[in-house]
Design brief:
10 helices; Metallo-beta-lactamase, Chain A; 7-stranded mixed beta sheet; about 20% strand; 2 domains; alpha/beta
Length: about 300
């Protein structure tokens, strides 16, 4: 666990057994708050992080998820079972899937197949009366002058919120402001980032609109779920915008009948050179393998949707 702001702590969730992959954030104060749960498989890491601050799950008053993808909220049901005094806060479109995760599980199984349980664990429902919908611009008061403001930020997912923290002037960005990668053997200060374009809702134009809105707030820091803080925030916006431009160029080059495998090949060709340029670690893309696969899937789904509207 690492302190990353005033009464704000990062917990490495070791998602899928990998360090430096996914972050949860704990806000210490009169109303202890957890932002992102990760999957059910991450539960013990969150509990250990709470213990280091003198808390147990029963002390939590608020649990916040940016969207319902399993590496962000798959463990929400398990965490809520252990946190009887907490309310779960989510986007209006996300709330039904937290209450009844049947469709969420089916969609996830279509992507991950038989590996779903081993990767993410159980997906448990949350009682409807313990889910608080947070509308665009709504404010959650945590006491002692700390407020979280929720913003509707589609582009990665239609059910995505980003959350502004007034104390640190930071934004909990979920998957809207890209992924910040940490590579073994590379200095932690070296930033390499790229947008995440997983299916089924990726839309580069809409994502750019969300980035415009967030950047206009002039935040000091971006608190990525994947992984950790980027400060100054301008660096996170820059690498996300640069990556979206690359993705748009790839989509323009691909034929109308392109397959995910073709998109994956294009992504690998670009990233192998780009990662080496920014990190000088060689062209090993093993840390990005799953993201490249999922990004390619999302790119082709977007291309097919766009073609169907012409």
């Amino acid at each position: 666990m690492t302190e990353v702001g005033e009464d704000l702590f990062l917990v490495d969730l070791h998602e899928a057994g990998r360090p430096f992959r996914s972050s949860a954030y704990i806000i210490r104060g009169p109303e202890p708050t957890l932002i992102e749960t990760g999957s059910s498989n991450c539960f013990t890491y969150v509990v250990d992080g709470l213990k280091m601050l003198g808390y147990s799950p029963a002390d939590l008053k608020h649990i916040v998820v940016t969207h319902v993808h399993l590496d962000h909220a798959g463990g929400a049901g398990r965490m809520m079972e252990a946190s009887p005094h907490a309310m779960l806060h989510a986007h209006r479109r996300a709330a039904p899937h937290l209450i009844d995760p049947t469709r969420l599980e089916a969609g996830s199984r279509a992507v991950y197949g038989s590996a779903l349980e081993s990767l993410f664990g159980a997906i448990l429902p949350v009682p409807h009366d313990r889910v608080q919908v947070q509308e665009d611009g709504s404010v959650l008061d945590l006491g002692h002058g700390r407020r979280l403001t929720f913003y509707d930020t589609p582009g990665h997912a239609k059910h995505h919120s980003c959350i502004w923290d007034n104390v640190t002037r930071g934004i909990f960005s979920g998957d809207t402001v890209g992924i910040r990668y940490r590579f073994a053997g590379v200095d932690a200060d070296v930033i390499y980032g790229f947008p995440t374009t997983t299916p089924p809702d990726f839309d580069p134009e809409v994502m750019l609109e969300s980035l415009d809105r967030l950047q206009a707030m002039n935040p000091d820091v971006i608190y990525h779920t994947h992984f950790g803080p980027t400060s100054p925030a301008s660096e996170a916006f820059a690498f996300t915008r640069r990556g979206i431009l690359v993705i748009q160029q790839i989509l323009d080059r691909l034929p109308d009948d392109a397959t995910p495998e073709m998109a994956e090949e294009e992504l690998r060709a670009y990233l192998s050179k780009d990662v080496e340029h920014w990190t000088h670690r060689g062209d090993d893309l093993s840390d990005l393998a799953l993201d490249i696969y999922l990004n390619a899937q999302g790119m082709i789904v977007y291309k097919q949707k766009k073609a169907s509207k012409l």
